[in-house]
Write a structure and sequence with these properties.
This is enoyl-CoA hydratase. It catalyses: a (3S)-3-hydroxyacyl-CoA + NAD(+) = a 3-oxoacyl-CoA + NADH + H(+). This protein is α/β, with parallel strands linked by helices. The chain folds into 3 domains: 281 residues, 2-enoyl-CoA Hydratase, Chain A, domain 1; 182 residues, Rossmann fold; 208 residues, N-(1-d-carboxylethyl)-l-norvaline Dehydrogenase, domain 2. Helix content is 50%, strand content 12%. The strands form 4 sheets. An 8-stranded mixed β-sheet has the order 13-12-11-14-15-16-17-18, with helices on both faces. The longest helix is centred in the middle third of the chain and has 26 residues. The mean pLDDT is 95.
C-alpha cells in the first residue's frame, strides 16, 4: 500500500499503474470533506513524485463513487467573507488541477453515484468509464450555488455549451445512457466490470491508442464556438432557464453568466471567474436557506431511520375506503412493493379506487417510467374486496373513509375485530383528534394517525400522529411503512390539525380577515405567489376543496376557540354555502375549465366578489407589505406554538413539515428559518400594529423572551 488514509488509499495496481481508491472508513458513502480533500492532495503529491508513473485509475470501494462535498461543512465555510471563500475554492480547484496535470493518462471508474464535487473530480481526469446502473450530475443549484471545483469550466468544453447549460442549470442526475450520449463519459459497462474496463482503457492510453493529451488540452482551452454561436447559445438559454428558475432562485442564471464570461478564457482565468461567482452565491440568503433545508432533511431522515430500526416491516397492508385517497394509498403502497387490500362497501367505489391506480400507472407507462410488466405486477398487488376475509394477515391498516368522527369511530371499531392482535391500525385524518378516535378501539396502543396529503403520489409528507396511548412499536411500524412507500414521515403529537393543518388554518384565518377588511382575494393571491408560495390562499383553498376546508375550519375553531374561532360568515363559510367547492366541482374563488391537454385551468370569475356578499368588506387598498405581514404573522406564531407545546419535536421537523406538506417557499427555508432570518425582535415589531386583530397576531411569551435575548431557533451553522 502506497498510502492509507481515513478516506483514501493509494495502491500500485500494476507496474507503473496506480489506483486512488475512495473508501471512507467513517461513513457509508464517500464525500469530499475537508479531510478527504487533504488526503487527495497528499495522494496527488505522492503520484507526482512516483518515478515509475505510467497511469492513474480513480475508483471507489463503496456502492457509490462520491456523492459530493460534505454539505455539513458548508455552514462554517460560508460564514467567511467573499475573498476568503474565493481563496478556499481556488485551493480546492488546485487539487483537481494537479490531477488534470499529472504526467500520465488518468481514468475514473464510476461505479455508482458521482454527484457535485465527485463528478467534478471525474471531469478532471482524462477519461471516464461508467456503470450502466450509475448516475452522474451537478446538483449544486438545488443548494443555491453552482459547481465550484471546475465543473462550469470543464463540462462545457467537454459536452458543449447547450448540454452544459442544461446539466448545470437544471441540476438533475443523468443516467449512464444520457451521459454517454452527451459525451460526459467515454464508456458504459456492467457495474461488475467498471474497474476492469477503467484499467483496460488506461492501458490503451499508455499504449498510445488514445491521445489523452489532446483531450486534456481541449478541457483547458477556450470553448470552440465563435462569438455569434456563443451569443445564440447563451442568450437562448437565459430566456428558458430564467423562466424556469424564477426570480427567487439566482443560481441557475448566475451559472449561465459565469459560463458565458469564461467561455473564451483558458483554464486558470476561467476557474477564477467560477470561484468569484460561487463566493457571491455562497453569501446569499437563498443559499443559506437551501443548505439549511438539506441539513434539516438529513436530520428528519435520521430521526425516521431510528424509528424504522425499531419497527417491524409491513409485509401486507390494507386501506379502508376506495375513493381517490384510498386509491392513491393503494397505488403508492403497491408501486413501492407492499401488497395491499383495498376495502369498501360498494363495488363502484372499489372500481373508482382501481381506476385511480390504473390512471397513475398509465401515466408512468406513457412517460416510460415503467413497462407493461411492472404495471401489471403493481395492479395485481392491489386486491379489491368487499369483506374483511383476509384482514387477519395484514400488518397495518390505513383507514381512509369520510372525514367524520362518528363514521371513523364506527369503521375503526369494526375493522379491529378482524385484525391480528399485533396489527397496527391507523387513521388518515387531517384534523380529527387521534385521542378521540382511540376511544372507539380496544387496543389503543396499536392505534395512531397516518395523515397523507393529496395527491398521495406527489406529496412527500406523511404525518404520523402519536396519541396518548399509542405505543412506540406502533409508531415505529407506521414510520417504517411510510418510508417503504417512498414518503418522508414526521412524527407529531396529537392536537386538532396536528402540525401542518394546525399551522395552515391560521394562515387561512388571516386571509379571511383580510377579505373582511376589504382586500381583493385576487390581489392577495398575486402578492403571496410573488412572496414565493406555489399558489395564493384563495387558489390553495380551491385545490384543497372548500367543503374540506369548511369542516376542518370547524374542528380548528372548536379546538382553539381563542384564536381560531370567528363570528359572522367568513369567505370559506360563504363558499361552502354557495356549493362552490373549488376544483372538485369546477367553481370556487375561481372557475376551472379544461385546457387542450385536459387539465383544469384557473379562470377569473368576475361574479365572485358579489357572491361573497357580507363575507367581504368594502374594497380597501392594501400594500404588499401589509398583505404579507397579515398572512405570515399567524402562520409563524402558530409554528412557534407547536414547537413550544411539543406537538413537533424539533425546529427542523417543523420547517420540513411546512416545506413538504403545504409548499412553504423553499428559498425562505421554513417558518422558523424565516423568523431567524428576519430576527425575532424585528418580527415582534412587525406584529405590534396588528395585535388588536386578536391572539393570532400576538407573539407568544417565549417568542418575546427569545427576541429580547437575541436567540434563534437554529444556530448559525445549521440555519
Amino acid at each position: 500500500m502506497v498510502m492509507e488514509g481515513q478516506t483514501i488509499r493509494v495502491r500500485a495496481a500494476e507496474a507503473g499503474i496506480y489506483e486512488v481508491v475512495f473508501d471512507n472508513t467513517t461513513d457509508a458513502v464517500n464525500t469530499l470533506s475537508q479531510q478527504a480533500m487533504k488526503e487527495l492532495a497528499d495522494a496527488v503529491s505522492i503520484l507526482q513524485s512516483a518515478a515509475d508513473l505510467k497511469g492513474v485509475l480513480f475508483s471507489s470501494n463503496k456502492p457509490t463513487f462520491i456523492v459530493g462535498a460534505d454539505i455539513t461543512e458548508f455552514g462554517q465555510m460560508f460564514t467567511h467573507d467573499e475573498d476568503t471563500i474565493v481563496d478556499n475554492i481556488t485551493q480546492l480547484q488546485g487539487i483537481l488541477n494537479a490531477i488534470e496535470d499529472l504526467q500520465c493518462p488518468t481514468v475514473t471508474a464510476i461505479n455508482g453515484l458521482a454527484l457535485g464535487g465527485g463528478f467534478e473530480l471525474a471531469l478532471s481526469t482524462d477519461y471516464r468509464v461508467m456503470a450502466d446502473s450509475a448516475k452522474v450530475g451537478l446538483p449544486e443549484v438545488k443548494l443555491g450555488i453552482y459547481p465550484g471545483w471546475g465543473g462550469t469550466v470543464r463540462l462545457p468544453r467537454l459536452i458543449g455549451i447547450d448540454n452544459a447549460n442544461e446539466w448545470i442549470c437544471a441540476g438533475g442526475e443523468k443516467r449512464a445512457d444520457a451521459a454517454l450520449k452527451d459525451g460526459a463519459v467515454d464508456a458504459v459497462v456492467a457495474e461488475a466490470s467498471v474497474r476492469e474496463a477503467g484499467l483496460a482503457l488506461l492501458k490503451e492510453c499508455i499504449a498510445g491508442k488514445f491521445d489523452y493529451v489532446a483531450r486534456r488540452t481541449e478541457k483547458q482551452s477556450a470553448v470552440k464556438l465563435n462569438t455569434i454561436e456563443q451569443m445564440m447559445a447563451f442568450e437562448t438559454a437565459k430566456g428558458v432557464i430564467g423562466a424556469k428558475a424564477g426570480k427567487h432562485y439566482p443560481a441557475p442564471m448566475m451559472a449561465i453568466k459565469t459560463l458565458q464570461k469564461a467561455a473564451n478564457m483558458e483554464r486558470e482565468a476561467a476557474l477564477l471567474v467560477e470561484a468569484k461567482g460561487f463566493a457571491k452565491l455562497a453569501k446569499s440568503e437563498v443559499t443559506r436557506a437551501l443548505v439549511g433545508l438539506f441539513l434539516k432533511d438529513q436530520y428528519v431522515k435520521k430521526v425516521s431511520k431510528r424509528y424504522e430500526s425499531q419497527g417491524t416491516p409491513v409485509k401486507h397492508a390494507a386501506v379502508l375506503g376506495a375513493g381517490i385517497m384510498g386509491g392513491g394509498v393503494a397505488y403508492q403502497s403497491a408501486s413501492k412493493g407492499t401488497p395491499i387490500l383495498m376495502k369498501d362497501i360498494r363495488e363502484d367505489a372499489l372500481q373508482l379506487g382501481l381506476d385511480e391506480a390504473n390512471k397513475l400507472l398509465g401515466g408512468q407507462l406513457k412517460r416510460g417510467r415503467i413497462d407493461a410488466a411492472k404495471m401489471a405486477k403493481t395492479l395485481n398487488s392491489i386486491t379489491p374486496t368487499l369483506s374483511y376475509g383476509d384482514f387477519g394477515r395484514v400488518d397495518l391498516v390505513v383507514e381512509a373513509v369520510v372525514e367524520n368522527v362518528n363514521v371513523k369511530k364506527s369503521v375503526l371499531a369494526e375493522v379491529e375485530e378482524h385484525l391480528g392482535e399485533d396489527a397496527v391500525l391507523t387513521s388518515n385524518t387531517s384534523t380529527i383528534s387521534i385521542n378521540e378516535l382511540a376511544k372507539a378501539v380496544k387496543r389503543p396502543e396499536n392505534f395512531c394517525g397516518m395523515h397523507f396529503f393529496n395527491p398521495v403520489h406527489r406529496m412527500p409528507l406523511v404525518e404520523v400522529i402519536r396519541g396518548e396511548k399509542t405505543s412506540e412499536a406502533a409508531i415505529a411500524r407506521t414510520v417504517s411503512y411510510a418510508k417503504a412507500m417512498g414518503k418522508t414521515p414526521i412524527v407529531v403529537n396529537d392536537c386538532p390539525g396536528f402540525l401542518v393543518n394546525r399551522i395552515l388554518f391560521p394562515y387561512f384565518a388571516g386571509f379571511s380577515q383580510l377579505l373582511k377588511d376589504g382586500a381583493d382575494f385576487r390581489q392577495v393571491d398575486k402578492v403571496m405567489e410573488g412572496f414565493g408560495w406555489p399558489m395564493g390562499p384563495a387558489y390553495l383553498l380551491d385545490v384543497v376543496g372548500l367543503d374540506t376546508a369548511y369542516h376542518a375550519d370547524e374542528v380548528m375553531a372548536q379546538g382553539f376557540p381563542d384564536r381560531m374561532g370567528h363570528t359572522g360568515t367568513s369567505a370559506i363559510d360563504k363558499m361552502y354555502e354557495l356549493g362552490r367547492f373549488g376544483q372538485k366541482n369546477d367553481k370556487g374563488f375561481y372557475e376551472y375549465k379544461l385546457d387542450r391537454k385536459g387539465k383544469q385551468q384557473k379562470v377569473v370569475d368576475e361574479s365572485v366578489l358579489q357572491l361573497l356578499g357580507d363575507a367581504v368588506g368594502e374594497a380597501s387598498p392594501f400594500t404588499e407589505e401589509e398583505i404579507i405581514a397579515r398572512m405570515m404573522i399567524p402562520l409563524c406564531i402558530e409554528t412557534a406554538r407547536c414547537l413550544e407545546e411539543g406537538i413537533v419535536a424539533s425546529p427542523a421537523e417543523a420547517d420540513m413539515g411546512l416545506i413538504y406538506g403545504i409548499g412553504f417557499p423553499p428559498f425562505r427555508g421554513g417558518a422558523l428559518h424565516y423568523l431567524d432570518s428576519m430576527g425575532l425582535d424585528a418580527f415582534c415589531e412587525m406584529a405590534k400594529p396588528y395585535e388588536a386583530l386578536g391572539p393570532l397576531y400576538q407573539p407568544t411569551e417565549r417568542m418575546k423572551a427569545m427576541a429580547a435575548a437575541g436567540e434563534t431557533y437554529f444556530d448559525a451553522a445549521r440555519s
